[in-house]
Design a protein that fits this description.
There is one protein chain. The chain has 265 residues and is an all-alpha fold. 82% of the residues lie in helices and 0% in strands. The chain has 11 helices and no strands. The longest helix has 42 residues, at 92-133. It is flat.
């Protein structure tokens, strides 16, 4: 199902994402879409990658590990879902259904793998602390870099197993799904992005800015504007409000300074 090169590239992509998520954090914005696109590029169908990545990105809206808590990792779910959907020859909505069937359990597995990775870090922290006490900072750096190996490995190993020895079982499971369950999965795959929006809206100050949601609905439903056009219009409005408030704040500061000088005189 997967070529050796695809297995290697998918493993490298997974490991690179986990590493930069815990260290550099250069690609956190829209990272689910990015992972889906790159996985689609590796598998030879970037359209499926964009579809899966975009859908899983909507599912993950409003979901984050507050205070170091562990949450499902939809980035790796997008990689796995895209890889299997393309490898099995699916396109369009069928590809999305297959990707969700595989990707969501993989994303949920990320909760346990994240806990396992963070737990493994306690060993390396104690080693680094001992080196710090001895002022052996060079060895302390070695232990710091070594701490990345198990954390990244906990993710790379399952991805390698999924795409090698486990690919046959995954394909058999997908093909064995009955038609009625497959229909339910299609409905669920369409509802999950709405759930992501609902979680996000719960966190936003809707009582204060809810009318912007209404504006977006009117532009989309009645004026038939595309999502990109609405997003660009929203960007213009945000910039206008921001700079207007910034100018107002500067005027208030200038007035306070001028008033203070007059009172001193």
């Amino acid at each position: 199902m997967f070529t050796p090169l695809q297995v290697i590239l998918l493993a490298v992509l997974t490991g690179w994402y986990i590493y930069q998520r815990m260290n550099l954090q250069l690609f956190n914005y829209a990272s689910v879409v990015t992972m889906g696109v790159i996985a689609g590029l590796i598998m030879g169908d970037i359209n499926v990658g964009m579809l899966v990545g975009g859908s899983m990105c909507l599912m993950s809206l409003g979901l984050f590990g507050a205070g170091g808590s562990s949450v499902p990792d939809y980035n790796v779910g997008a990689i796995a879902g895209t890889a299997f959907a393309v490898a099995m020859g699916y396109e369009g909505q069928e590809a999305l259904t297959v990707a969700m069937t595989i990707g969501i359990p993989v994303a949920a597995l990320g909760t346990q793998l994240d806990i396992l990775g963070k737990t493994s870090g306690s060993f390396f922290i104690h080693k680094m602390k001992d080196c710090s006490d001895k002022k052996d900072f060079k060895k302390m750096g070695v232990w710091m870099w070594a701490s990345q190996i198990p954390f990244v490995g906990f993710w790379v190993l399952p991805m390698v197993l999924f795409t090698t020895v486990g690919s046959t079982y995954v394909e058999a499971l997908i093909t064995a799904i009955p038609a009625w369950l497959n229909t339910g999965l299609k409905v669920a795959s369409g509802m999950m992005p709405a759930l992501g929006f609902a979680i996000l809206l719960r966190q936003l100050p809707m009582k204060k800015y809810g009318y912007f949601i209404l504006l977006g609905f009117v532009l989309s439903a009645y004026l038939k504007m595309s999502i990109l056009a609405i997003a660009l219009l929203a960007l213009v409005l945000c910039c206008y409000i921001f700079f207007s408030k910034e100018e107002q704040r500067q005027n208030q500061v200038a007035t306070a300074v001028t008033g203070g000088d007059m009172e001193d005189e």
